[in-house]
């Protein structure tokens, strides 16, 4: 046994070893025990991986929803109330079915409600209220061509459109019903054909001394948007507006309206090319045709250029002639009176050369 002052004693050595063993045990337990450092590190690693996976899934979901919004696909696909269902990114309202075409070529729907409007056809026009994401802006546009007497210019600050050689202006405030639907659904429907009539009596002469109100050629006054129908002409602007708004008054899935200047001009942008200033292929035969009879479909739409000129809700500043009709006439040429033409008229105007066209907005 060591003497005092010459080193550590055996007892001290034993105690030291015991302390070291205790510390080693504690260290090992902290490192590899049930709640040790390594166990906690493994657990933290698993938690991090799970959090990263969830974040990745959330990001993918967000990007998918963003892609849907850009593509015009709203979620959920079937809204509360079942007012519409999505087909290829287009809302098909209740009471209608998709029959042909795509968003690019002309997405056509047909009324299949089984009522008196059964068989009416409309074409989807994709657009947004601000023209973002490369889509058409829902707006009024001016159309011009060298030497064309109907050349138009637009004041971008006021929105007023002026026709060549005139100080009067065409104006219209964007209808709130229309823009709210555009914001939600990114598009609207336009009548595939001019508004036609059911049960037309061809033997009745087209002398209409009382305008549209008592002309017996239209025996029941029911409007349709179907091919090979007599165009509902001899109609004033106010009557055309009333007919349009009443046509789907019983179907809350859609809002039917007389075509506005916003809708008309946006459709022309959708059709594209030179159509707005040269509507060759439409009916300029010198003779009134039935709907869709003597014209070429563009994006599934007929006769926005020829056959009859059509009332819109756009206003004109000239006293006594405050209404506006659009498009060509069967007794003009495609270059003289194409689809982009703006012509003013009075509230009492009604002739064999004036008709109308319907637009449908998906209900809010």
Query: Major beta sheet, specifics?
Result: 7 strands, mixed
CATH topology type of the largest domain: paralog of FGE (formylglycine-generating enzyme)
Broad shape: elongated
**CATH 2nd-level architecture of the largest domain:** Alpha-Beta Complex
Oligomeric state as shown: single chain
Estimated share of beta-strand residues: 15-25%
Number of strands: 18
Which percent bin holds the helix content?
10-25%
Mean pLDDT: 83
Distance between the termini: 100 Å
Question: In CATH's first tier, which class of the largest domain applies?
Answer: Alpha Beta
Order of helices and strands: HHEEEEEEEEHEEEEHEHEEEEE
Supply Rg. 35 Å
Ranges with pLDDT <50 over ≥5 residues? 63-81
Main structural class: alpha+beta
Individual helix count: 5
Count of domain modules: 2
Describe the protein.
By secondary structure, this protein is an alpha+beta fold. The chain folds into 2 domains: 10-70; 84-362, paralog of FGE (formylglycine-generating enzyme) (Alpha-Beta Complex). Helices cover 24% and strands 20% of the residues. Strands 6, 7, 8, 14, 15, 16 and 17 form a 7-stranded mixed β-sheet that branches. The protein has a 6-stranded antiparallel β-sheet with strand order 3-4-5-9-18-13. A hairpin with a 6-residue loop joins strand 14 and strand 15. The protein starts with 9 loop residues before the first helix and ends with a strand.
């Amino acid at each position: 046994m060591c003497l005092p002052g010459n080193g550590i004693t055996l007892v001290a050595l034993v105690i030291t070893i015991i302390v070291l063993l205790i510390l080693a045990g504690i260290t090992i337990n902290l490192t590899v025990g049930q709640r040790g450092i390594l166990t906690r590190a493994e657990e933290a690693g698993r938690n991090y991986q799970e959090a990263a996976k969830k974040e990745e899934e959330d990001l993918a979901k967000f990007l998918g929803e963003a892609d849907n919004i850009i593509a015009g696909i709203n979620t959920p696909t079937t809204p509360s109330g079942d007012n519409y269902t999505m087909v290829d990114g287009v809302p098909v309202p209740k009471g209608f079915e998709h029959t042909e075409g795509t968003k690019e070529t002309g997405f056509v729907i047909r009324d299949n409600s089984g009522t008196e409007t059964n068989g009416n056809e409309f074409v989807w026009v994709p657009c947004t209220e601000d023209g973002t994401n490369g889509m058409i802006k829902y707006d009024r546009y001016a159309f011009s061509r060298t030497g064309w007497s109907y050349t138009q210019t637009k004041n971008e600050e006021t929105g007023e459109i002026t026709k060549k050689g005139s100080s009067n202006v065409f104006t219209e405030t964007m209808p709130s019903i229309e823009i709210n639907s555009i914001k939600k659904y990114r598009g609207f429907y336009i009548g595939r054909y001019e508004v036609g009539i059911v049960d037309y009596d061809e033997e009745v002469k087209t002398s209409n001394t009382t305008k549209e109100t008592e002309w017996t050629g239209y025996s029941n006054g029911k409007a349709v948007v179907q091919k090979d129908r007599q165009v509902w002409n001899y109609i004033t602007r106010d009557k055309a507006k009333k007919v349009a708004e009443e046509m789907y008054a019983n179907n809350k899935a859609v809002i039917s309206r007389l075509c506005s200047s916003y809708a008309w001009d946006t459709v022309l942008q959708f059709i594209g090319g030179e159509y707005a200033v040269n509507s060759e292929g439409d009916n300029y035969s010198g003779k009134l045709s039935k709907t869709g009879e003597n014209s070429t479909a563009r994006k599934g739409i007929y006769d926005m250029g020829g056959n009859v000129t059509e009332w819109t809700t756009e206003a004109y500043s000239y006293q006594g002639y405050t209404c506006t009709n659009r498009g060509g006439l069967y007794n003009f040429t495609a270059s003289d009176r194409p689809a982009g033409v703006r012509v003013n008229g009075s509230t009492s105007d009604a002739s064999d050369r004036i008709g109308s066209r319907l637009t449908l907005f998906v209900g809010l």
